[in-house]
Design a protein that fits this description.
315 residues, flat
Length: 315
């Protein structure tokens, strides 16, 4: 299997995890009982009981410690996830796990099949070439996706605030409370709007998780990133397959640390397809150490890398 197949597996698996977390009571907030459920248990600070049980200095210190451990420390952990991920893996989460990114890629693919370009606004130089296909089939798939995916997403994400059993009972009886109706419709409209009109612009300029990964990945000397073997640049056929494969509009052959790169590996797949499996010019690296794919790493020359040359400057 190539990188794209592995990436689709991780994307689908993470979406299933997001959908199943409230169902399995792994994490959700029940607005009816006003309780936070974590791994099937109510996450309670227990401060009121502790305060009335022991009002001494020792009791107050115990309450302060409990508040730090159960209220402040969890938030510090949650807020540190994406900076740490960015420092170590760059924007790997965006390219391999993010549900929104997966939705935007699907929208790109269907738009490309129907219009010959990735977005509705204009055709860009890096839009990939497409093979002939039945547009009517893709139109049906696009319509079904625009209806089914937002609604399923609305039901699943509303489950983080309303018990999933309650939601499904209302769906079966077709009798909705205002909160459930507002949650499903609101999420569905958001998903539909962003997938049609916004897409990866949100990833580049709006998403807070993406921005944190951008910043910490940019300054990190060891973060995962995609590199080009510049010592073998003369082997480049100028097919521009790496540029056409990149849905984030990165120019991989510039070999610069681009904050928009989500480490999806599409350029690796495209270059391997053009030059032959294992002969591609791109690879993942941690710092200066080649990480994968192993076949591309084996072909790295021992000559120290130098700045990428433009095609007109090549020897």
């Amino acid at each position: 299997m190539n990188i794209t197949v592995y990436r689709r597996i991780t994307q689908i698996a993470f979406i299933l995890l997001i959908f199943l977390m409230p169902v399995l009571d792994i994490l959700r907030y029940d607005t009816a009982t006003k309780e936070l459920i974590v791994f099937g248990n109510v996450w309670s600070l227990g401060l009121k009981h502790g305060f009335y049980a022991d009002q001494s200095v020792t009791g107050s210190l115990h309450i302060a410690v409990q508040f730090f451990l159960k209220a402040i420390l969890p938030w510090i952990f949650i807020l540190s996830i994406f900076p740490i991920l960015g420092f170590l893996t760059g924007r790997f989460f965006c390219g391999w796990l993010c549900p929104e990114g997966t939705l935007f890629e699907l929208a790109d693919y269907l738009t490309l099949k129907l219009t010959g370009r990735r977005n509705f606004y204009s055709k860009k130089p890096n839009d990939p070439d497409i093979n002939g296909g039945n547009k009517a089939v893709y139109a049906v798939i696009a319509v079904l996706s625009a209806v089914v995916i937002p609604l399923v997403g609305g039901v699943a994400l509303t489950g983080y605030f309303v018990a999933p059993k309650t939601i499904w009972a209302q769906i079966v009886n077709w009798n909705f409370t205002f909160g459930v109706k507002a949650g499903i419709i609101g999420v569905a409209i958001y998903m539909l709007t962003t997938s049609i009109f916004v897409r990866h612009v949100l990833c580049r300029f709006v998403c807070a998780a993406g921005l944190m990964q951008m910043l910490f990945g940019w300054v990190s000397p060891v973060s995962l990133r995609l590199k080009m073997d510049t010592a073998r640049i003369t082997e480049c056929t100028d097919c521009r397959g790496c540029e056409k494969a990149c849905f984030m509009n990165v120019m991989p052959r510039k070999n610069k640390r681009d904050i928009s790169c989500v480490n999806c590996g599409a350029c690796i797949v495209a270059c391997n397809k053009e030059l032959g499996y294992g002969r591609g010019l791109f690879h993942y690296s941690f710092g200066e150490k080649c990480a994968s794919p192993s076949e591309n790493c084996k072909n790295l020359t021992k000559i120290p890398p130098y700045p990428a040359l433009s095609l007109t400057e090549r020897p």
